[in-house]
Amino acid sequence: MFGVYFFAITYKEKQKNMFLCPIIISFVLYGGFLEFMQGIIFENRISDIYDFIADIIGVFIGGFIFIKFPSGVPVNYIKKD
After folding, report:
1. Which of 31, 32, 38, 74 allows an S-S link to 55, with CB 3.0 to 4.6 Å?
2. CA–CA gap between residue 44 and residue 41 (Å, rounded)
């Protein structure tokens, strides 16, 4: 999954938007899969729909940041004293 994300950020701006929808879908499915498996594998944990909703919200916030800052944060963004 992260390989697909890093692959997408190396392309030009038009090509980046082409990858955004598959990335969002794959991360939402991954979050759902983790929640489902959490309820099956671990005895002390349960699957929670609210946790899955939080995963979805986080994916969309990440997608917004990906659109808003397409090239990432510049290296010299943090000022050194």
Report:
1. 31
2. 9
